[in-house]
Design a protein that fits this description.
The chain has one domain (6-332): Farnesyl Diphosphate Synthase (Orthogonal Bundle), CATH 1.10.600. It is 72% helix and 1% strand. By secondary structure, the chain is mainly α. The mean pLDDT is 94.
């Protein structure tokens, strides 16, 4: 696997101290859960050394400040805030999805209980707004509003995702693309613009950066959905065929189900089974591919990255910053792997 872009690896050290200081404001009980979830400690609260996360959203936030020709350090509160919102969403997602592992170790809710994990997520979300509003300058309020709106969309997308999983209905592809735009795209879009918003950049620039992030978010979700079926468990940290095992209405699956092919009808039969066997899962993966779901998802992800790049042309940002955005986009969608 190709190493992460420098614009991401360089961010980790810069953001880590500020992130730890922010989370350190929490009460000791909540801090223990949050620190474990963030990978800083083991379940006993002892410090641990582990590979750092991708810091994707903080990297994008800092790049957006540079897009506005401002020092990237000026966007540090925004970078911390988007990472806090991301951590909140993962804490809650693991509970709602019943996922027992996160980054190759037990998920926080399995260690501390559902209630403690929910409260830790709530605390991280509240802390994110607090951090942005404390930033100096007149951009703090608009940045906080942008983050709150993105979080509201993220929650709406998760609510729709749960509804589709609960009722097991066959959703339309447009409906699921809208869900991805909210659940994944909203926070990424916010991350790509919030540093510029915080620095008081022009509306056209902020809108172009947000549009880049929106298309990147769809491409990111498509890639994640492909990995949820065909990804290497050693790399993803999830069991093979995990999305099919949970009968997740991921984008490749929905595309296949709506293909009108004989394979779509058989796939629908398998998805209706309450406890699919390993043979059923292997067959379902083959059916998604035969019905065109895999090819459609790969092509759509490529198309979204191309559209995202066009938004950066519109933004007229410094060339090194544009290159940084594109390198991150290629990396997180697997094109650098």
């Amino acid at each position: 696997m190709t190493a992460a872009p420098g614009s991401m690896t360089d961010v980790r050290e810069l953001v880590d101290g500020a992130l730890r200081a922010a989370v350190g404001r929490l009460d000791p009980r909540t801090y223990r859960v949050a620190a474990y979830h963030l990978g800083w400690t083991d379940k006993e609260g002892r410090p641990r050394t582990a590979p750092a996360g991708k810091a994707l959203r903080p990297a994008l936030a800092l790049l957006s400040a540079r897009a506005a020709v401002a020092p990237q350090e000026s966007a540090l509160p925004a970078a911390v805030a988007v990472e806090l919102v991301h951590a909140f969403s993962l804490l809650h997602d693991d509970i709602m999805d019943g996922d027992r592992t996160r980054r190759h170790r037990p998920a926080a809710w399995t260690v501390f209980g559902e209630a403690s994990a929910i409260l830790a997520g709530d605390a991280l979300l509240a802390l994110a707004g607090e951090i942005v509003l404390e930033a100096p300058g007149e951009g703090s309020a608009p940045a906080a509003r942008a983050l709150a709106a993105a979080t509201r969309r993220l929650i709406a997308g998760q609510a729709l995702d749960m509804e589709l999983e609960t009722h097991r209905k066959r959703p339309g592809l447009d409906e699921c693309m809208g869900m991805a735009a909210d659940k994944t795209g909203a926070l990424l879009a916010c991350s790509c613009a919030i540093g510029a918003v915080l620095d008081g950049a022009s509306e056209p620039l902020c809108a172009a950066l947000e549009a880049f992030g929106a298309d990147l978010g769809i491409a990111f979700q498509l890639t994640d959905d492909l990995l949820g079926i065909w990804g290497d468990p050693a790399a993803t940290g999830k069991p093979a065929l995990s999305d099919l095992r949970s009968r997740k209405m991921s984008l490749p699956v929905v595309a296949a189900l709506n293909s009108g092919t004989p394979e779509a009808a058989r796939l629908a039969e398998l998805y209706a089974r309450p406890e699919p066997s390993e043979e059923d899962l292997a067959e379902a993966a083959a059916l998604v591919e035969a019905a065109g779901g895999r090819a459609w998802a790969e092509l759509e992800a490529e198309s979204r990255i191309q559209r995202a790049a066009e938004h950066l042309v519109t933004a007229r940002i410094p060339e090194p910053v544009r290159a940084g955005f594109l390198h991150i986009a290629d990396f997180v969608t697997g094109r650098d792997h």
